Amino acid sequence: MSVIKQEDLIASVADALQFISYYHPTDFIQALAEAYQQERSPAAKDAIAQILTNSRMCAEGKRPLCQDTGIVVAFVKVGMNVRFEGDLTLEQMVNEGVKHAYLLPENKLRASIVSDPAGKRPNTKDNTPAVVHVSLVAGDKVEVSIGAKGGGSENKAKLAMLNPNDSIVDWILEVVPKMGAGWCPPGMLGIGIGGTAEKAMLLAKESLMAPIDMHELKARGASNRLEELRLEIYEKVNALGIGAQGLGGLSTVLDVKILDYPTHAASLPIAIIPNCAATRHIHFELDGSGQAIFEAPSLDDWPNISWQPSAESQRVNLDTITRDQIQSWKPGQTLLLNGKLLTGRDAAHKRMMTMLQKGEKLPIDFTNRFIYYVGPVDAVRNEAVGPAGPTTATRMDDYTEMMLGQCGLLGMVGKAERGDETIASIARHQAVYLTAVGGAAYLVSKAIKKAEVVAFPDLGMEAIYEFTVQDMPVTVAVDVNGQSIHKMGPTEWVAQIAQRKSINA
Fold first, then answer.
1. C-alpha to C-alpha distances, 237 to 208, 258, 337, 487, nearest whole angstrom
2. Which of 8, 143, 167, 438 could lock onto 184 through a cystine, CB 3.0 to 4.6 A?
């Protein structure tokens, strides 16, 4: 019988979460580097270069890959011959580890978890509780697979109860385009098939804990039906032309993972959960000999890619920008923002809407200003702000007409596409929407030279800041005429991919 000390499990969970906050898995880096080499879309290639550069910077600086440091999910397999030494339950031990990791002063991670989800949604301040799945297995070890799942990709999870003869591939090809780019492709798709509704979702999530091995699978060929499905889905999803950040390109997914389980004869449950460009997961075992040790990867594992803005990038002064000056901006154009940039996301927008409905004056004048949808990580050492990548802009669609029409906002910066009504509102008010790269949070933060909370400090990371930025890289996603790169890009690359296949046939 193995005796596992609770302090060893707590310390191992804490160390694991810190480790994955700044080290990408080596298999992910290798797959992304290969996608970079193969990519022919300039916008997508630039986005991948930013993600790879950001990844190396985080490995060197030991700072989070993404400002959204995730909700912690742990799959814990406890051997039947294991005894725990301590007075905490297994879930309490995991949560203690989460607390230690997220409150570590030298690399404090963003607390994103709220309690009372259907009510006031107060932040728990330490990112607990985690979501813990426990199973009893044979043996005398404790196996832990743990990940930190970003909200942008988690929000794109889908479940369907298909008929037994329905096509799994057709359903996935219908669902993936509807996910948009909020899950920050290129990444992984986790798929669960069978069992019951909740089992399919669990299988999909657990599948994302596996390493990327699509390159090896393609080289050796499929040996069973699930591997055949993986290959087919991988090829057909990439043929959709969605590309990195939804800008259009060759690589939308780096791998497709599938787990299945026996199901009822009348059922075909299927679930899909994407994993984003900040793929964070790790596996460790405890056998009673002490806490887990995590070996840092070699920086030689990263490709020699150092992103720099293109010579064609246009510098923009946010302090003097006018509505006339943005008329010439076109979808896909790269800009470098300079000057004062306001921030705000879900909670701030909701509070502002409530204030306006009550006839109250807002604490900030948004006239001819730009707003960045972001919830940054706390600064450490000499940083102005911690990693500060964009959040999914679609969640702010319900507030866009208010911000453009009533508040005089000139432009917005976020990630992913906007809805049709929002695009129409942007065109009606002759405004613009810009995107920053999701998965390049630390790189983006280096362009932020000063950060000051100017409203709603009680909202924590959702407070309104005023950033002073210098050459912050963005791409024009929706211009004043309502033209969207997230529609134009994939459409163009679907045609290009089909043409390439025709030529190679």
1. 17, 15, 34, 16
2. 438
DSSP 405: I
Distance CA 225, CA 238 (A): 20
pLDDT, tens digit, 9 for 90 and up, residues 60-71: 999 999 999 999
Triad 44, 386, 440: Cα angle to 5°: 10
DSSP label of 384: S
The residue written with tokens 């409905």 in the block is 357
Whether 99 and 39 have beta carbons less than 8 Å apart is answered as no
Rounded Cα–Cα distance for residues 240 and 491 (Å) = 8
d(CA 254, CA 279): 11
Question: Which token pair is 219?
Answer: 């080289």
HEC letters along 46-64? HHHHHHHHHHHHHHHHCCC
Q: Please check the confidence at residue 505 and state whether its pLDDT lies above 80.
A: no
Same domain? 326 vs 284: no
Which residue, 436, 284, 281, 305, is CA-closest to 374? 436
Same domain, 277 and 158: yes
Q: What CATH number is associated with residue 344?
A: 3.20.130.10
Q: pLDDT tens digit string along 40-94?
A: 999 999 999 999 999 999 999 999 999 999 999 999 999 999 999 999 999 999 9
Instruction: Select from 488, 477, 313, 483 the least CA-distant residue to 411.
Output: 477
**Domain finish residue from 288, 322, 356:** 288
* 302 assigned to some structural domain: no
Range of the domain at 334: 314-489
Q: Please tell me the distance from the alpha carbon of residue 94 to that of residue 107, in angstroms, as a whole number.
A: 19
Supply 290's token pair.
């002490």
Distance CA 378, CA 362 (A): 25
**How far lies 136's CA from each of 72, 76, 140, 145, in Å?**
21, 9, 11, 14
| Average pLDDT score over residue span 221-233 | 98
| Average pLDDT of the segment spanning 350-371 | 97
In a domain? residue 308: no
Cα–Cα distance, 48 to 44 (Å, whole number)? 6
392-440: per-residue pLDDT in tens?
A: 999 999 999 999 999 999 999 999 999 999 999 999 999 999 999 999 9
Cα-Cα end-to-end distance for the chain: 60
> DSSP labels for 237-298?
HHTT---GGGS--S-SEEEEEEEEE---TT-EEEEEEEE-SS--EEEEEE-SSSS---PPPP
Q: Taking all residues of the chain, what is their mean pLDDT, rounded to a whole number? A: 96
